[in-house]
Amino acid sequence: GFAEGEVLSGMLPWSSHQILDADAQKGLQKVEPSMLGEVPLSYFVGVLGMPGMTAWAGLKKIAEPIKEGEVALVSAAAGAVGLTVGQLLKHVYGCKVIGSAGSNDKVALLRDLGFDAAFNYHTTPKEQALKEAAPDGIDIYWENVGGPVLETVLELCRPHARIVACGMISQYDLPDEEKYGVKNLFNLIGKRIKMQGFVVGDYYSELGKEFVTTMGEYVQQGKVKAVEHVTEGIENAGRAWVEMMAGGNTGK
Question: Rounded to an integer, what distance in angstroms lies between the CA atom of residue 168 and that of residue 111?
Answer without folding.
Answer: 24
